[in-house]
Amino acid sequence: MTGILYGVGVGPGDPELVTVKAARLIAEADVVAYHSARHGRSNARACAAPYLREGQTEIRLMYPVTTETTDHPGGYRGALDDFYVGAAEELAEHLTAGRNVALLAEGDPMFYSSYMHMHKRLRDRFECVVVPGVTSVSAAAAATGVPLVEADEVLTVLPGTLPESELRRRLADTDAAAIMKLGRTFPTVRGALQDAGRDGAAWYVERASRADERVLAVGDVSAEDVPYFATVLVPGRINAPTAPSGGEVVVVGLGPGDEAWTTPEVRHELSEATDIVGYQTYTARVRPRPGQRVHASDNRVEADRARHALELAAGGARVAVVSSGDPGVFAMASAVAEVAADPAFHDVPVRVLPGMTAANAVASRVGAPLGHDYAVLSLSDYLKPWEVIEQRLRAVAAADLALAVYNPASRTRREQLVRMRDVLLEVRSPETVVIVGRAVGSPEETLTVTTLGAFEPEQVDMRCLLIVGSSRTEVTERSGGRIVHTPRKY
After folding, report:
1. Which of 38, 117, 437, 453 has the most CB atoms in a 10 Å sphere around its CB?
2. Given this model, what pLDDT does residue 257 score?
3. Structure confidence at residue 68 (pLDDT)
4. Residue 332's pLDDT is what?
5. Which residue positions in the chain have pLDDT lower than 70?
6. The model's pTM
7. What is the distance between the alpha carbons of residues 242 and 199, in angstroms, rounded to a whole number?
8. Phi and psi dihedrals of 228, rounded to 5?
9. What is the pLDDT of residue 245?
10. Nearest C-alpha neighbor of 164 from the set 130, 187, 203, 192
């Protein structure tokens, strides 16, 4: 009979946070093992000390390195790999002899713990039982007294060893965050918090749950005094709202449909806004947080919507004006810019954040039909006369450009699409490639690849976008499906 390896979580530091099960198994184990640095001290053993008994064998698994500086031929990773192999074999000797081993892990054994390296090397040879423990994240949240996440807020756990740019991106894209593995990384972490605009609500917790615990605002921490066993918490905005920084309007693009196509930058601005303004179909795509006001309106009141957003911002609100796709492509950026030219709004800051356009989304689904020069045109004659549209269609056809057509049809606009086809056929071959993308990025997505001669306008509605190829656009039939592309060279 071989022994059992128990991965025992002993919590973040306070021995009273060791679970009843963990305390029992520690006392019953034949062998108690724990990792340590070269100084020999172990926080995990200190947590378990009240539960140890006389006669137990103790094994100290001492790391050969604690920084990336080493003379090992395999470098830092090579030194650790050799250490893990040797440590696993040391434990295996006891397990083979039938002795149960309790390997102590600070916090939880499967959460940034040294235990997992032994688990992966021994689980195929011996029975391994994991006993979860209280994590440092939970202890740190308790120490701040501020709820970390509520309702449907998302918590992201980040290692402080990530590059600053990656930390900044992830902080901007989450509701709440816990950043671990500090020490030398703290200046990088603080810089990322500042750049992401999250430093004002961030807490620093050192040695959570221990007698020497410290809790400070991140801005009050001296980087020289930060140990590895410290955590930065950024609570969700429900319980730690960002302080208002003055009114402004940010015009954002949500992308064409799929939430994955909304950029982290846009998500961050939506979470920071006090007010969301937009066409009701697009505001429905935004999940407002508690306290956030949503101002939805009809699609044909763009100027009124822009004025309302600017008036809210003039009163101190942080307003996000939402569009689908990119806000600068037949969307709200133009309307906001036009109204913002009014001297009454000259003191209101206005920013525009880009989004993925519907043209690029549809093109990506079939290949690269817009891989060379192309034009973008709206077929709606609501804001410009049909004569102008027809003149531009003829110019595009004569220039032999691929064409992305927005707003091709609606319930009341059907004839324009027929006239577009007829105008293009005056110059273009009936074999010209046409792609009809409907509701791309949504569960109702459909794609049709046809020709200008076979194109059926009655199948197009307001959720469609068309791409009409140039004379050089090709359709290649492949085993993996057809691909459409417009060559970049002549």
Report:
1. 437
2. 84
3. 64
4. 96
5. 66-68, 242-245, 490
6. 0.71
7. 10
8. -60, -40
9. 65
10. 192
The answer to whether the beta carbons of residues 412 and 443 sit under 8 Å apart is no
Cα–Cα dist 438/457, whole Å: 13
Query: How far lies 247's CA from each of 168, 264, 287, 310, in Å?
Result: 23, 22, 21, 9
The set of residues, in sequence order, having a beta carbon less than 8 Å from that of 8 and lying 6+ positions away, is 22, 25, 26, 48, 102, 103, 104, 105, 109, 131, 133
36 forms bridges with which residues in the sheet?
A: 62
Q: SS in 3 state form for the chain?
A: CCCEEEEEECECCCHHHCCHHHHHHHHHCCEEEEEECCCCCCHHHHHHHHHCCCCCEEEEEECCCCCCCCCCCCHHHHHHHHHHHHHHHHHHHHHHCCCCEEEEECECCCCCCCHHHHHHHHCCCCEEEEECCCCHHHHHHHHHCCCCCCCCCCEEEEECCCCHHHHHHHHHCCCEEEEECCHHHHHHHHHHHHHCCCHHHCEEEECCCCCCCEEEEHHHCCHHHCCCCEEEEECCCCCCCCCCCCCEEEEEECECCCHHHCCHHHHHHHHHCCEEEEEHHHHCCCCCCCCCEEEEECCCCHHHHHHHHHHHHHCCCEEEEEECECCCCCCHHHHHHHHHCCHHHCCCCEEEECCCCHHHHHHHHHEECCCCCEEEEECCCCCCCHHHHHHHHHHHHHHCCEEEEECCCCCCCCHHHHHHHHHHHCCCCCCCEEEEEECCCCCCCEEEEEECCCCCHHHCCCCEEEEECCCCCEEECCCCCCEEECCCCC
Structure tokens at 444: 């109702």
Asked if residues 26 and 101 have their Cβ atoms less than 8 Å apart, the reply is no
8 A C-beta contact, residue 404 and residue 440? no
Picking from 160, 112, 101, the residue whose alpha carbon sits closest to that of residue 135 is 112
User: Distance (Å, rounded) from C-alpha 465 to C-alpha 437?
Assistant: 5
> 452-475 burial, b if ≥16 CB within 10 A, otherwise e?
beebebeebeebbbbbbbbeebeb
Which pLDDT score is estimated for 10? Answer: 98
Query: CA-based Rg of the chain, rounded to a whole angstrom?
Result: 31
Burial of 201 (0-12, 13-18, 19+ CB in 10 A): buried
CB 148 within 8 A of CB 155: yes
What is the model's pLDDT at position 243? 58
